[in-house]
Specification:
Layout (H helix, E strand, L loop, with lengths): L7 H13 L2 H8 L3 H15 L4 E3 L4 E3 L1 H22 L1 E2 L2 E2 L1 E8 H8 L3 H7 L3 E8 L12 E6 L6 E8 L2 E4 L2 H4 L15 E2 L4 H9 L10 E2 L2 H9 L5 E4 L4 H5 L15 E7 L6 H15 L1
Parallel strand pairs: 5-6, 5-7, 10-11
Antiparallel strand pairs: 1-2, 3-4, 7-13, 8-13, 9-12
Helix pairs in contact: 1-2, 1-3, 1-4, 2-3
Length: 289
């Protein structure tokens, strides 16, 4: 039996019948008659030389051969459908899987997704958010946007935007803050990078207090806690412009400290594809504006 001779319609009829365990419901899905589905399945059984179903008084039951074939066909048809769905305007969309630190995803990237869709319609973007700890190869990522100094072993990094840190808090907190030293009496929310508050107090010319506030692995969650009145966060104000515009968050002091920025990274061993190159150019253009 040659693979090329396998009848596609019969395979589709079998796959639908296997999901429904009923020829009539499969026929409704495929917009053909029940007799046509039954005939196509019978033809497939003859060609394969095995029985795929046991006909029951009410419905169908898969044989062991049918149980082996059904999931493979279902996966194959799903993959075919997903590939066909990637054709837009007569062109095949290229899939680009991007890991994004959560703060950048919510504060910068998501508000620009409509612009991205219009600028790069041939790229199907798949976003995987993280807390800045990412394994490009292990997680199957093409590229990743992360926060830091750009120095990651075996990684090529392109700068996107600077992200100096500054205190952010709810208006009620800000009302009792008149100078940076007042922060030493408040609950200071922290990230897992222990040097951030000490470095900010140093820039403010104030001795850093002993830090006892809760520690977060996500700046987005930490700032949400500050917005809820749990304390004062130290975070990049540019990533929370919407919250500041609506005055859910305020910036009590202009002092900021530059400890890192957001970078577009890829493995040095990974050749940059057209989609990766186009995405990088779009990021750089939007960031410069």
């Amino acid at each position: 039996m040659e693979r090329a001779q396998l009848p596609l319609n019969a395979l589709r009829a079998f796959e639908a019948s296997a999901r429904h365990l009923n020829f009539t419901r499969a026929a409704i899905e495929l917009c053909v008659s029940q007799g046509a589905v039954s005939h196509q399945v019978a033809q497939l059984e003859t060609k394969l030389g095995v029985r795929l179903f046991r006909r029951l008084p009410r419905g169908l039951a898969l044989t062991s051969e049918g149980q082996a074939l059904a999931p493979m066909l279902a996966e194959s048809f799903d993959r075919m459908g997903a590939t066909l769905d990637r054709y837009a305007g007569g062109r095949l969309q290229e899939v680009l899987t991007v890991g994004v630190v959560g703060t950048f995803a919510t504060g910068w990237l998501l508000p620009r997704m409509e612009d991205f869709r219009h600028a790069l319609p041939d790229i199907e973007l798949r976003l995987m958010t993280n807390n800045n700890r990412v394994d490009l190869a292990g997680e199957g990522l093409d590229i990743a946007i992360r926060y830091g100094d750009g120095a990651w072993h075996g990684t090529h990094a392109d700068p996107i935007v600077d992200a100096p840190l500054t205190p952010l808090c709810a208006p009620a907190f800000a009302a009792r803050l008149s100078e940076p030293a007042d922060l030493t009496r408040e609950i200071l929310l922290r990230s897992y990078r222990a040097d951030e508050w000490p470095r900010w107090f140093e820039a403010a010319g104030v001795a850093s207090p002993q830090l006892r506030g809760p520690v977060f692995d996500s700046s987005a969650v930490m700032v949400a806690a500050a917005e809820a009145g749990a304390g004062v966060a130290l975070a990049p104000a540019s990533m929370f412009s919407r919250e500041m515009t609506t005055e859910r968050l305020v910036r009590p002091f202009a002092i900021e400290v530059a400890l890192g920025g957001y970078w577009l990274t890829r493995l040095r061993s990974r050749v940059e594809t057209d989609a990766m190159r186009a995405f990088r150019a779009w990021l750089e253009t939007d960031a410069s504006e």
